[in-house]
Amino acid sequence: MAETNAAMHPPLEGIRVIDLTRVLSGPFCTMMLGDMGAEVIKIETAKGDPTRAQGTLKDGFSWYYASFNRNKKSLVLDLYREEGKRVLERLIEEADVLVDNFRPGVLAAMGFGAERLKKINPRLVTASINGYGSTGPYVDRPAFDFIAQAMSGLMSVNGAEGTPPMRVAQPITDLVAGLYCAFGIVSALRARDLNGVGQHVETAMMNGAISMMAYLASEHLATGQLPERTGNDHPLVAPYGLFAARDGQIAVAPSNDVILQRFLNALQLGHLMDDPRYDTNEKRFARRDELSQLIDQALSNGTQDEWIDHLNAAGVPCGKVQNLAEAFNDPQVQAQEMVIEVEQPHHGPIRMLGFPVKLTGTPCKVARPAPLLGGDTRDVLAEAGFSGSEIEELLEASVVRATH
Amino acid sequence: MAETNAAMHPPLEGIRVIDLTRVLSGPFCTMMLGDMGAEVIKIETAKGDPTRAQGTLKDGFSWYYASFNRNKKSLVLDLYREEGKRVLERLIEEADVLVDNFRPGVLAAMGFGAERLKKINPRLVTASINGYGSTGPYVDRPAFDFIAQAMSGLMSVNGAEGTPPMRVAQPITDLVAGLYCAFGIVSALRARDLNGVGQHVETAMMNGAISMMAYLASEHLATGQLPERTGNDHPLVAPYGLFAARDGQIAVAPSNDVILQRFLNALQLGHLMDDPRYDTNEKRFARRDELSQLIDQALSNGTQDEWIDHLNAAGVPCGKVQNLAEAFNDPQVQAQEMVIEVEQPHHGPIRMLGFPVKLTGTPCKVARPAPLLGGDTRDVLAEAGFSGSEIEELLEASVVRATH
């Protein structure tokens, strides 16, 4: 419970990560390692991570790329050439972590299979994020968030009643697999402290998606029944969902009888809990349309904001459905600094999401903005022990590239 | 890259976690710590975690509870009483981690504020999972997944075109906040190794939800425009989504022109990429209904399974929309052991989700099934140094309870 203390070392200080990942799941994972103080060396091709050219570019810089690559260095390296592979080998010798999000087998085909990596550096923690895992019949399939959502069962429960299965709008199978991998990597680093040797960490988009099924999974496994799509309604509890205040809807989630009683009391409908038509969840569920009308009627004498203040004060979880602009301008979100502004040299300030993990002693910070393509090539090689003339030769032969 | 080795110590061996959490976000977090080898001591009230009575009970045991509480011990402790608080204090003296998912301020009101915890055990890593964070205007509000989804902007992008915002069916704000917290705790443990002192970790359901917004957030921040709900269609790319094979739909995600060319070639529609009506993404997006019809027509000469094999072999990410039964019986999911069976003493086998983080050297395992309520009370107290007569006194006074 130490206070923030500039003298404290961040969690991953001294950890060097060689980052072979691109686009989303991998860069999200390694960004979290960088946010925790690791030195992340992002290896890019001459064209750079595809996200450098995706989404809106402002003043020549992609805000999508910027928001997933803060706290990283960029080294442009041609891994199709033997000289490039030798550079990677030397980097791995001195590294703590190697992360890739290739399909299983690609890294080995490049000459960096598990056995060789262990020989190069037995303390190395290696980590892979892929679509389906590295064993099983689908190991060679290409993966994508939408497909992992489809196959995992995630889509089958998402959507409104009576409508087809629907994907979740956020690329959550990428993000969740990346987050699990960051957790696995830090865990494996701690195991290395105990054992003296590294090991391999693997997470898959499909497995991560399945792990999000929570009680939907346990209910299915217990009963064999398939969960139905219920949109904003709770599959088992009523009342629950969106209700109409005078000037708009509010979301209310009375998840148990105690909270429901508070909610109904606040609406001066407390007597309904004793009404033989509504005195059990089963009865309320069967008459939920009727009950919703009574609630909407009671809510119509106040505004959204009035009811949200009143109900929260009464201990009833509720809030407005907000769009991204409303959410990012919400005073709570601002107090939590969940949108931050990072000065991008030569490109002005870039706004991006903040840190979801708050640490009091060693808070996450932006130690460096997203790198220019090859912006750290010379520095990284010099720190890795390459001589000035070696670096010039590699540049001359376009095995590596540098922006300056 | 060590092989699995029984002599290797798991990542969190020797780490003792005092777990004050209940229901979902917190138990999910501490289960991950337990899966990584920590000793997790779950403190329960005499009634137990509410999930013990939720979902389907088989032979008296909740599969919901079982699936979130493996690898934990249960100690029943009355924290409303001074004697109970003294027991907690003694447990904290010897612990490494204390986790709660109370509203901010509740733990301090119980007498365990930050300063006191630091005095009891300066090496303690404390962690809180809450709804909105512990600073800002909403700090006292009760939280719930549905509300965090509504307020964070998550719902605003989820849903079909022309329909209202819709929640994601999975309780992802609970799970993501729990997962971030597990990552933060292991990171803080590593910082403790460097600094000699603990610190506080905090994650919030609202912040976790916002962090999942990915490129939807960066695009909004760059342009000021609000993302639209597009259901299963990609907001920017066409073709993309669900298409009709002879016996059912397949999900196809050609995320760039290279993959799209492969997809169209496989359908013998490769020429469309040169057709002036379809030769840019903009044109394809404008004529996506027309294009979908051409694709459906080409797909009609094969079955789902035939096309899925053929397209994956051609490097096109695709798959079936599966319900939970299909997903859990999928040979890939079985190969990845994402559904496991745990023998629950006195209650028979319980099926639950497996481990999303795969470690080669020290794989996660079920070292113990979910505990009986108070099943470890005596053992935990004895290990914490309570004498036999102290334990009997505490039991006698119902400060603690034990099942045996």
TrEMBL record, chains A, B:
Keywords: Transferase. One of its GO terms (molecular function) is CoA-transferase activity. It comes from the Bacteria. The keyword Calcium does not apply. This is Formyl-CoA transferase. It comes from Nitratireductor basaltis.
